[in-house]
Amino acid sequence: SKTTTIPAAKMATMPHTTSIPVTAPTKPEVIEDMAGNWADFKFAPIRESQVSRAMTRRYFADLDKYAESDIVIIGAGSCGLSTAYTLAKARPDLKIAIIEAGVAPGGGAWLGGQLFSAMIMRKPADAFLRELGVPYEDDGVDANYVVVKHAALFTSTVLSKVLQFPNVKLFNATAVEDLITRKTEDGGIRIAGVVTNWTLVSMHHDDQSCMDPNTINAPLIVSTTGHDGPFGAFSVKRLVSMNAIPALGGMRGLDMNTAEDAIVKGTREITPGLIVGGMELSEVDGANRMGPTFGAMALSGVKAAEEALKVFEQ
Ligand code: AHZ
């Protein structure tokens, strides 16, 4: 494979755009063998059970391995993925499970806002884009923000990096439907894991007879389930219903300037064993929403990872 970079002339028209190496694929061996003769093309033979076993063997091995995890991240939106990237890179020795209710990980970060593709990140979150190698444009010398040409470029890049870490497993189409709790000596509670189920099962508890869930034990959970909605703000709502915190502040109206700082600064361990980041935190603290600007999600993820590392370094 050979490495190419964006040509200097093109770079000159894109001020402050980072140059990331693009790996040109080598011509696949099979195509050379066929030499254009597709009439004789044939896949290597297979028996259907081989496919089933190749998938299920690995999935059940992962369920077994991650039943005791070091960290569970709930929600694979922009904040959860940023948390996972930062943690997995810093601590390859930690077993990190990500539980995502949707089939498609990424949460709201496949589009910038409404149905528009560009993703805006306010400075200094551009540093996280450089860390990932996501190219961006700067809207001029005075601009306080940078623009990724498509939100899906950010999301697919961080996702592909997270999935390549050997110490991370993503369980998608899987919902966290409760938290595992332990009583502490002072009469409070500590979060000690998550209760999971297939999302399609979680959605049908009302019209099917009970189908019991599965569990993952972990000393630390990072919850990034987004603001309130059909699935959002899951962990913090559950903390209220189990009297671990008195009440939710409720997400306030949109104010980009106050919202982004508040989410990043406020990212913390809310209840022993449970760190909350991203827009889920706005429901606890009564913070404003920021709408379509994603720098706080990335940096809240970085802060959530730092808070988690402090716990592991104690
Ligand atoms: O599917 C959810 C989404 O992918 C997932 N999730 C929610 N509840 C879950 C549960 N079990 C497993 N019980 C669950 N997964 O969590 C993910 C949340 O992603 P998100 O993009 O909604 O949240 P975020 O905090 O990462 O990013 C918020 C982005 C927003 S919202 C907003 C505004 O409304 O003003 N502005 C920004 C930038």
From TrEMBL:
Residue ranges that the Swiss-Prot or TrEMBL entry lists as coiled coil: none
EC number(s) stated in the UniProt entry for this protein: 2.4.2.60
Post-translational modification: During the catalytic reaction, a sulfide is transferred from Cys-210 to a reaction intermediate, generating a dehydroalanine residue.
Pfam entry (one): Thi4
Cofactor binding remark: Binds 1 Fe cation per subunit.
Subcellular location: Cytoplasm; Nucleus
Catalytic reaction list: [ADP-thiazole synthase]-L-cysteine + glycine + NAD(+) = [ADP-thiazole synthase]-dehydroalanine + ADP-5-ethyl-4-methylthiazole-2-carboxylate + nicotinamide + 3 H2O + 2 H(+)
A Gene Ontology term for the protein's cellular component: nucleus
Record keywords, A-Z: Cytoplasm, Iron, Metal-binding, NAD, Nucleus, Thiamine biosynthesis, Transferase
Membrane-traversing stretches: none
GO molecular function annotations of the record: cysteine-dependent adenosine diphosphate thiazole synthase activity; iron ion binding
Cofactor(s), by name: Fe cation
Domain of life, source organism: Eukaryota
Modified residues (2,3-didehydroalanine (Cys)): C210
Quaternary data: Homooctamer.
Family, per entry: Belongs to the THI4 family.
PANTHER family from the UniProt entry: THIAMINE THIAZOLE SYNTHASE
Entry function: Involved in biosynthesis of the thiamine precursor thiazole. Catalyzes the conversion of NAD and glycine to adenosine diphosphate 5-(2-hydroxyethyl)-4-methylthiazole-2-carboxylic acid (ADT), an adenylated thiazole intermediate. The reaction includes an iron-dependent sulfide transfer from a conserved cysteine residue of the protein to a thiazole intermediate. The enzyme can only undergo a single turnover, which suggests it is a suicide enzyme. May have additional roles in adaptation to various stress conditions and in DNA damage tolerance.
HAMAP family reported for this sequence: THI4
Protein known as: Thiamine thiazole synthase
The species this protein was found in: Meristemomyces frigidus
Gene assigned in the entry: STI35
